[in-house]
Amino acid sequence: MPIPSLSETDLEAYQIDLSNPEKSTGELFIKLNGLYQRFAGNEQLLANFEYASALNSLENDYSSKKEHYNKEIAELKRQFKQLDNRIIAAEQKLRHGIPEDLMVMDKIIAEQESIVEDQEKLNNAESFIVEQVRKIDIAHGKDLQKLEQQQNNRNTPFQSKFSAFNEQMKLAEKRITLKLSAFSLIAIIGIPLVIDAIFSSIGMPALGKNTNNLILTHYMFLISLILIEVFMADKIRSRISRMLSISYLKDSVSTLQNLLAENRKQIFKVESDHHITIAEFIKQNAAE
To answer: Which end of the chain, N or C, is less surrounded by CB atoms within 10 Å?
Structure first.
């Protein structure tokens, strides 16, 4: 089943998710990756639309030119037929011999000269049309080759671009994970240290007489550390993760919005250039 295309509604829904503190960064990254995958569908649709529309325009232009010269060829055939009739008529006049009347003979000679002249004109016209048709066929072949090359040239950077997007996202996620580990450790250990320091400063007694025992002396640190790890560590990690990720995620969705706008701009251009809407193109492909 094909992945549905990306829409403005999808991006708006994602922005709502970004403002929802209940959404984990892991979930947001997975969804962002899904949005990029869907946008890849938009780009592929645009590429297919551009190619099919350009191909259709080329074929229509080629057919129009061929039709024009086919009409001229049909007209030439009609004129050749008329010329054949004139030749037959001239031959019939000479079937019973050369007429003695000089005026009649002059007319026959003039007609024959006219036939030769017209035949030469028709032959030249036929050669010209054949040459034009040959040029049209060659030009059409080159246009098709150029279009195929453009399509191939587009597919390569198209695939590279989305591979780069995926790599950037993975790299960003790794960097955030590393920072998260460091900041979370600082927070989870730092808070008990602060609590321990506060209680020590107010003269909180040690649990035992041996004040050289670190565990007995700094038991508030251990208690705080255990309590934070059990009850608050996940929330702390989640909050830090969100703080580290939100800027990247917002920038990414903004980039997607710009890419989607450019994609739509290109679609409008294709529709204008080739006089076919994207909806018609999709409908035609669905029917096939």
So the answer is: N
